[in-house]
Automatic annotation (TrEMBL):
Belongs to the kynureninase family. This is Kynureninase. Its EC number is 3.7.1.3. It catalyses: L-kynurenine + H2O = anthranilate + L-alanine + H(+); 3-hydroxy-L-kynurenine + H2O = 3-hydroxyanthranilate + L-alanine + H(+). The keyword Hydrolase applies. Keywords: Aminotransferase, Hydrolase, Pyridine nucleotide biosynthesis, Pyridoxal phosphate, Transferase. It comes from Pseudonocardia humida. One of its GO terms (molecular function) is transaminase activity. Pfam families: KYNU_C. Pathway: Amino-acid degradation; L-kynurenine degradation; L-alanine and anthranilate from L-kynurenine: step 1/1; Cofactor biosynthesis; NAD(+) biosynthesis; quinolinate from L-kynurenine: step 2/3. It is an enzyme of class 3 (hydrolase).
Amino acid sequence: MTTTTTTWRELAAELDAADPLAGVRDEFLLDSAPGVTAYLDGNSLGRPLRATATRMTAFIEREWGGRLIRGWTEGWMDWPQQLGDQLGRAVLGAAPGQTVVADSTTVMLYKLARAAVDAAADGRDEIVCDTDNFPTDRYVVEGIAAERGCRVRWIETDPDAGITLDQVRAAVGPRTALALFSHVAYRSAHLADAPGITRAVHDAGGLVLFDLSHSAGSVELDLDGWGVDLAVGCTYKYLCGGPGAPAFGYLAARHHGVLRQPVQGWMGHADPFAMGPGHTPAAGARALLSGTPPIVAMVPVRCGLDLVERVGMAAIRAKSVLLTRFALDLADDLLAGAGVTVASPRADAERGGHVTLRRPDFRAVNDRLWEAGVIPDFRAPDGIRLGLAPLSTSFAEVLEGVQVLAREAGR
């Protein structure tokens, strides 16, 4: 291919014209950020939907303002499970009754990991985790290990890659209580072999917990089919739930009534308004709740899930693959000779929804990109991540972003 600027523009235009999700972009508030010509950070914070602004106003005026405290008995109490079931159906590949929306990812991660460790058989005193997992995941397992007298068995992973099945097989064994991994690596976007890893952990007699924060809304998932025990994730990235949006927790039905999360609050009680002595957990995944659900924060999550369910994860994943492949092709051409290293998998089946590029001075380059109206993000020590949200990102936007990156990297 002749890789002139004109050729890239023509190709981006062709890809946008052929994109079956192109019209969905109009459902986002694309013009609300003046001066931003390329938003490439959807893997950190998704753009807001127009419907979110409308529904938030309606909620405040009619449901909160109009119904006041009556809103709890008229439906709010069930929102964590209702949104959880929709998330399970539209995104996670999970049957009803196994997912709730509540808390932050860190809190939900602690609840599920601690429940798994507490339920482990005698002699199972190891938590397996990888050294390049997201910091929260590593910090949480270290804290639980200190609380429960366990040992963390670390798997050394390459930041430019991710956890592999062979590494997991070599690390798990008769002392494994829990194995915790990210399905899509936050640095490289490496897509882990979730079904294979799950089988390997189960063969060793342990439980597996996946962090789906960079997966949910970006890649297709089948938690029930894979046999996953536990999962957590956020809703503010590809699901467009907004900054600080509540997380989700998945607890496979076979563990209901067996695994007990440690933060025993009134909303996870079988009868919250009995307010009597002792804690009797609610049935099913509702037992994962602790305090009052963040109802206002759930409104944007509902909007995001409605859109994802309408479009379908198969179509979203198909565009995600094309976007990241296009970004890699652009990087190979426009950044050739600039000392930039691609730190994401080349194979489509091994790559999540973002592309990471590395160079020692990229922290300063990222600052200049923001000043120029191109918004990716930086991950230490030297990586710029191009987060390509399939529902709101165009191919022309990717081209603009990489062209400006090439200019700034060439200074």
